Write the structure tokens for this entry.
Amino acid sequence: MSLIDKINDKSAKVGVIGLGYVGLPLAIEFAHAGYETFGVDIDKNKVNSINRGTNYIEDVDDERLNDLVKKKLLSATSDFSKVTDLDCISICVPTPLNKEKNPDISYIVSVMEAIKDHLHSNMLIVLESTTYPGSTKELILPYITKNRNLAPGENICLCFSPERIDPGNKTYNTSNTPKVIGGITEKCSEVGQLLYSKIINKIILVSSTETAEMVKLLENTFRAINIGLANEIAIMCEKLGVNAWEVIDAAATKPFGFMKFTPGPGLGGHCIPIDPYYLSWRLKTLDYDARFIKLAGEINTYMPRHLVELIISSLNEYKKPIKGSEILIVGVAYKKDINDCRESPALDIIQILNDLGSKISYYDPFVSSLNFGTLSYKSLKYLNDNRLSGFDATVIVTNHTDIDYDLIAEHSKLIIDSRNVFKNHLKDNIFRLGEGNNSYSE
Ligand code: SAJ
């Protein structure tokens, strides 16, 4: 039976390699569509958790996972030789930066090394990890062409299809977010589109793997650069004595030709701060300097320090030196209503404040403890009037929804707000990122 027939009658065995915030939701969608689905991961904790039907990803529904495991539609293994039995595999492993801020594609390479002897004819391989244009062909295709029995684009298909997960997004998930896919040949694209059309409402077919790789990098570079612009607007408005939040809210009333981004304490997450450097690195190999990416990176990377400068100047208004000040950081996750601290600007802010001799506490209902570098903290269990009034400054870094901001406004001696949560509080002990002398409320 051909691969297309197996995909159509759901007898295809599907594998997802890498069971993180991208891979696990994807595996669940394949299993939910009726494919016998195998998660493959080196992390035995993830494997055991899935086989117990226990969820570990916030955006995944516990019951849904448990039900699919009970029905034996979903299982997991650390044995990469399982690929021998699989008809389709999607690779969803991390693509971070190394210390020199260059692409670290070692996870993709180690997956290919682990599965190279188990590749077989009548198979589809889809890379989902965000990476530089050309890497599907440079990193994966050679493993296929080395195998004399495999003819890429004929008896084995290879595609790139960028993940578009937005952690914490309650509206958009794997199945209802349009999915871009491009193959190394037309037949690859056709087979890849067919498989993904069984789990995702809208598939966007593009002409090559490089095109699909570039689509994802444009999406995230667009965000990084516009966030960088919002951050620079905030710095400009501080110098101009106007309120950046008011400016942005008013500009956002333009019904066309404008898209709202807001300033913040810096750029967190495992995508936006990282993906643009995959693009600028690739262009450097082609002797081109991607200036926008570099400049946005400089501004976004500077924001944690800029917020610390605001904290210092605000304490100064109260004749309090930064050294010895007791500072409460509210929210340490990299964005609101999630528990992920990867690349969170809060870590930079805490490190700098600690180095300046402040005494740091934090409160984050999503993050119970924080360990990075030589520092480790436990979140306050709750906020109350006594605790708040005991701090010299309260700094809003991540604006989680379920925090009692009125309690904070009422009992804090001094507030530095990097997310404009206090836009409706006209108190003179509140200092906002992006605000000059005027205060702004809606
Ligand atoms: N941020 C701002 N100002 C803004 C928007 C975001 O300072 O106007 C900050 C956030 O606080 C956060 C960082 O930027 O620290 C990244 O925010 P994000 O909303 O892009 O969140 P991510 O990285 O979790 O998810 C993004 C996806 N987000 C959205 O589309 C809204 C999307 O860009 C990608 O699908 C995803 O990364 C990915 O996995 O590539």
